[in-house]
Fold this sequence. Notes:
The chain has a 7-stranded mixed β-sheet with strand order 3-7-2-8-1-10-9, with helices on both faces. Helix content is 32%, strand content 25%.
Amino acid sequence: MILAAAVCPCPPLLVPQIAPGTTDELATLREACDRAVHTVLDAGPERVVVIGAGELGADRDERAGGTLAGYGVDVRAGGPDVCLPLSLTIGAWLLDRAGWTGRRTYSTGRPDVDGDVGLLVMADGTNTRSEKAPGFFDERAEDYDRAIATALHDGDPAALVALDPELGAELGAMGVPALRTLGALTAGAAVTAHLRDDEAPFGVGYVVADWVVRA
């Protein structure tokens, strides 16, 4: 049974050691992520399932970990087996930051959610919100990110499932598959939703939300 879910973005800049000069610019985003993660942990899960994008293969347990050494600082997160892609490494870092020492599952697909489970969904929005964005500017990006934020604000699993994955890929929204998985896993559930942040500080859509789920 899914007790609660958090949605957070996964830029390496979320980690203060990676970007020490962004304290003011990213303070709201970091605080929102912390609050969303604590909402999941406060629900009392037996296990936290982290869902994100990237190459992983089979789902991994809490022995898996990741490193941000490729971004200039050897920040490690999770367990000793360094195998996690960026999205899941940031998820592991958020759980470490929150003090979670319980069971974990890391997945880039549709994971097993047996038992009392909390979800941590690592999902960036579009990367085409401005001319300085990684994917340059696409006028469709703002509307696409608005659809993501609205679905999370409304606690609407069906709206997440309905996100167009092909358009999302065109707009650089690499988190769409994970968001659609969240929608599929919570289909038919009653959701108390809290949208904590919705911004695009570097031309990339970052949305933070948490859902408390009632079957």
